[in-house]
Amino acid sequence: VREVDNRRDSESEESEEENPAERNMICIFSRRFQLSVPKLASRRRVVQELLSDLLRVSHNLFSDSFFPVLEPVIGVGSACEGWSPHKEEDIVYCMFVPLKPPRGHAFHLEPDSTGEMPQTSMRVRVELVCTCTGEQPDQNMMCFLHHSEQELKRNQVASLLHTLCTGPYLDGEKIALWFQTFVISAWSMVPQSRRYSMKVLPSCRSCKMKLMKASGRNLFLETVFSVQQGDSDIFLSSQPPEAQLPPSTTWLESYAVAEAKFFRHVAMQAPPRSCHLKCLRLCARILEGSGLSVYALKTTVMHLLTLIPLSEWQHKYLLMRVDDTMRYLRCCLEEKRLKHFFFANEDMPQEISLPPAFQGAQPLNLFQHLARDPAAQTEALKKFDDL
């Protein structure tokens, strides 16, 4: 942090004239790692419109059923944030679809006692609630609690507990299969079916789709199901990391919505042609093969965006910000400590809503595995320095 402050002081003293050699280097990097933010935004809108149209169809088809209520989609991940490290043809647009309980049901979040996952995990217990009493009793449905089983079987479709749950818990695999089946059957009902052909790709916890244009251009999108924690920007996600496969009733805590909100906040506050997205993409390409996760890099840049004034992320400072990022990462590797951005962070923008427990929680260390394994730290430092 002291090094960042010293660099900031030196930048404020220099004249507005850029060093010609440095300006030329910035141009070279900009062309080599060109990122079309408007193109990413345009394709993100296509994906959001498609899913919004599909959700409208689902609301019509399932209005008399007791499947989860599908809330408006939320774009998350690097492609929706505007800085994807992948080649254009490999970009996947990830969308969260929050789930709300249907009529006569309630969701209760419970800590997952299996203890199989390294990150926070929970289960979503589904509970039946009375609909025949209260201020506005629902006259169009029978109460699951106060009508007989025979009446319910004869006159009403099954409850959520009997369709997409395993025991009393919401099942991510069953939800994914249900939604995949719906997408295939409903595709002809959305206007995008006239411009694209569509294929549902294999996935057990999400819905992955490939959209193909006659020109040969493809769009990839992934719908991930989520449950909001209270009124916060922290959600539980149905989709685990690729290397992990917990039980289908285990939902993992995800910070993706809060991260997307943070980058929207930065975009609104930053100067025109801010270099923070290009810095992220460039560093991600530099770090390929290092073994460092893209998430560690993203966390580093988020920390720096709160440490360095946004006025000093102008395009002409790109190489300095890249240097700051790499030095910060190197120090974290040496210290075997990289603080998670959303725990006990006093610099958190007020627009981001976190559960109260996050402020008093012990900061999570994303490099905890290096602290436990000195050999892994030595190897990580060697790979980083080789780059």
TrEMBL record:
Compositionally biased intervals (Basic and acidic residues): 1-10
Compartments, record wording: Membrane
Pfam families registered for this protein in UniProt: Mab-21_C (PF20266)
SMART domains (UniProt xref): Mab-21 (SM01265)
Keyword tags: Membrane, Signal, Transmembrane, Transmembrane helix
Ranges where the record places region Disordered: 1-21
Gene Ontology CC: membrane
Highest taxon of source: Eukaryota
Topology versus the membrane: Single-pass type I membrane protein
Residue ranges constituting the Mab-21-like HhH/H2TH-like domain according to the UniProt record: 291-351
Family named by the database record: Belongs to the ITPRIP family.
Protein name: IPIL1 protein
Organism of this sequence: Cardinalis cardinalis (Northern cardinal)
